[in-house]
Design brief:
The protein has helices at residues 10-22, 34-40, 59-67, 86-95, 107-118; strands spanning 2-6, 27-31, 47-50, 77-81, 99-102. The N and C termini lie far apart (37 Å). The protein is of the alpha/beta class. The radius of gyration is 14 Å and the shape is globular. It has one domain (2-118): Rossmann fold. Strand 1, helix 1 (10-22) and strand 2 (27-31) form a beta-alpha-beta unit.
Length: 129
């Protein structure tokens, strides 16, 4: 599996990269800003994990750029951020983010959220009666 991690903090990138490798990603690309991330975006990515607050272009602006590019639009994008107010979540969802994880996170919570994005439950498998 292949992932792109986007964060201006080298320490946060290292934590994310190590966690992603531990949960089975064989290729983890890194970008220190959204502009560098755009240059590395490719249709073969399984997921993009990005921070919100970055200089030059925010993570939400990155999501909008990805969603406006047809060959990239279907890649799940997980926003990992310290921003946790309702208006921020709504803005991220409106931009097209696939999922949202609030910092600080645990490796297990990150793994669960990624699993949910990459392996959503099948529709119609509930026990409605």
């Amino acid at each position: 599996m292949k992932c792109l991690v986007v964060d201006d903090s080298a320490l946060t990138r290292r934590i994310l990269v190590n966690t992603l490798r531990a949960i089975g990603f064989t290729t983890v690309l890194e970008a220190g800003d959204a502009h560098s991330a755009i240059a590395q975006c490719a249709p073969d990515l399984d997921i993009i994990v990005t921070d919100w607050n970055m200089p030059g272009m925010t993570g939400v602006e990155l999501v909008r750029s990805i969603r406006s590019t047809p060959e990239l639009a279907g890649i799940p994008v997980l926003l990992v951020t310290a921003r946790n107010v309702k208006d921020d979540v709504v803005e991220a969802v409106d931009a097209g983010v696939s999922g949202y994880v609030v910092k600080p996170f645990t490796p297990d919570s990150l793994r669960r959220r990624i699993d949910e994005l990459l392996h959503p439950p099948a529709r119609g498998t509930g026990t409605d009666g």
